[in-house]
Amino acid sequence: MRLRDLQDRLRAHIRARISRRELTGSGLSRQAGFQQGHLSNFLNSRRGLSVESMDRLLETLQIEVLDLVDAGEIQRRALLPSDGAGLESIAVVSVEHAARLPRFTSEQVGGTVTFRKTFLRRLRPNDVCDRGDWLRFVTITLDSKTVRALFPRSAAGATVLIDRHYTSLDPYRRHRPNLYAVRLQPRCASGYVSLAGDHVVLRPHNPQLPVELARIARTKRYSNYIVGRVCQVAIET
Asked: Mind listing the pLDDT tens digit for each residue in 199-223?
C-alpha cells in the first residue's frame, strides 16, 4: 500500500469518527499539537502529512497503521496463492466483534472464507450509520437456534456473509425485504427488520417463532442495532 492510500484511509477514519461525534476536529488538533487549519487542510485533501505527523495522529487516535488496513486484505496477502487473484478472503469474526468493532486484530480473526471479487463488487452498500471507516464485509457463524429461525429444516449451524455498510431499511431488491443480522442483547439474531414507534421489530423467517422487539435507546438510532445485511448463507449439513 502506498503512503497516499494510507493517508486517504486515515482521512476516512477521522471523518467517520467526527460524523459519529466521537471527536471534534478542534479537539483532535489540540491533542495532537496541530494548528486547526493544518488538520483541516489534510481532511479536505488540500495537503498531505509527513510520516512524523501521521505518527502523532495515530498515537492521539489510539490506533495503529494495521487498523487502517482491511483484515481481509492482510489475510489475503498472507494466505492466498498467486492464482487466487480473482478471490478475496473475508475475515471470520465473532458476532460481538462484528457488531461493535470497525476493524479487527489478527487475534480477533478466527479464519477466512473466500469469495469471488466480482460477486463482492456487485453488492451495493446503503449506509446510514456513518461506517465509512469500518471493514465492510465480514463472515460470522450462527448457532443452530439462530439458523432454525431462518431455515426451519436445518439443525446445524451456518456461516453468513454480512455487509456492514448496509444499515438502511431500504429494500435491496424491489418488493423483497432484506434479511439482516441484528444485535439484540446479549446475542445476535437474524430476520426481517421494521420499526414500530421507538422499537426495532425483528420478524424471523420461520413463522412459527415469535417476533422480537428491542427498544431504541434515547442516544441511538435503529441502524445502531443492525450489524449488516445478510448477503449469503452457507448452511452446514
From this structure: 999 888 777 788 888 899 888 889 8
Annotate 66-98 with DSSP letters as a single string: GGGS-HHHHHHHHH--GGGTTEEEEEB--HHHH
CA distances from 13 to 18, 38, 132, 177 (A): 9, 17, 7, 31
DSSP per position, 210-229: PPEEEEPPTT--GGGGEEEE
Nearest residue to 103 (alpha-carbon basis) of 76, 58, 63, 130? 63
Q: Which three cell numbers stand for residue 156?
A: 446445524
Q: Which of 179, 193, 178, 203 is nearest to 225 (CA)?
A: 193
DSSP letter, residue 198: T
Quick one: cell of 46? 488540500
| Interval 74-129: pLDDT, tens | 555 544 444 456 889 999 998 888 988 898 888 889 889 999 999 999 999 999 98
Domains observed in the chain: 3-68 (1.10.260.40), 71-235 (2.10.109.10)
**pTM over 0.70, yes/no:** no
CA distances from 89 to 58, 128, 169, 179, 201 (A): 26, 26, 27, 23, 33
Q: What is the mean pLDDT of the chain?
A: 83
How far apart are the C-alpha atoms of 192 and 140, rounded to whole Å?
18
